[in-house]
Amino acid sequence: MPAVGMGTALPIPVPHEVTKDAVLAAIELGFCHLDTAAMYGTATEGPVGEAVADAVRRGLLRSREEVFVTSKLWCTTCHPDLVLPSLRGTLLRKLQMEYVDLYLIHWPVCMKPGPITWPAKREDAVPFDFEAVWLAMEECHRLGLAKAIGVSNFTTKHLERVMSVATIPPAVNQVELNPVWQQRTLRAYCAEKGIHVAAYSPLGGQNWNGSGEANAVLESEVLAEIAQARGKTVAQISLRWIHEQGVTWIVKSYNKERLKQNLDIFGWELTDEDRLKISQIPQRKFVTAIALFSPEGEFTSVDLSEMDIVQE
């Protein structure tokens, strides 16, 4: 799995061509990992597929095999009989590819089958059959439609349920991770089980819940102090720290110059003093499972508080 990736999640949809051009720009800069999801809809899966095809035609890539594509199973299709059809739909109708390199269960949340809505209705939450859904994910791998399979936003508790039945363990757990939410407990567990960790929101996350809160990473005084001393940006300090933890990071930017800056994290290291300062940053989580749901309605058979990765 490449050490760095470009994400395509956006709180507000952007035009098809804008996403396609941004993905092409990322490929030109050297990004070879593209992250998308069924939940992001045709607004990203379609443009990602088209951008890869265009990159091959232009000679930016010699073949599809030179790029690593991740997509994700959405909550409304987290049912054993819907996993394979969902992936086939992603591949045939949207990405127009024969396989994805990595297919993830997007959230440890299951909702009634139906159209993807945002935010979801709380009354649509139903019990999640982790074991049966994971076995369906394994079938996607055996059929060659997913080169690797994994999960996203899973706690150790969720991972243990999957591991109890897995004949193919999760290859990756993609979670919110940055210097302000370091996921020490979860990272240690994943390392013990041989599960690679990938980080979304490496620069502090997008405002999915509409709270208007400040970005705790980009506005961190600790990171700003280190950045000034090292002649780097705060973003570069955050991304370098994540890289030094052995974690893949996935950053979203449609600004080519910013993408280029984000790649400038190699050929230098943080000092021990830098790492100590970062380890002492107060921890706070930004993305929560409850942000998936509209404020109306009551919880049904699911305790959403248990779905958030709160271990530190």
Automatic annotation (TrEMBL):
Residue numbers annotated as active site: 40
Site (Lowers pKa of active site Tyr) residue list: 72
One Gene Ontology MF term: 3''-deamino-3''-oxonicotianamine reductase activity
Sites where the protein binds substrate: 106
UniProt domain NADP-dependent oxidoreductase: residue ranges: 5-278
GO biological process, one term: siderophore biosynthetic process
Superkingdom of origin: Eukaryota
Keyword tags: Oxidoreductase
Pfam families: Aldo_ket_red
Family: Belongs to the aldo/keto reductase family.
Name listed for the protein in its UniProt record: NADP-dependent oxidoreductase domain-containing protein
Source organism: Digitaria exilis
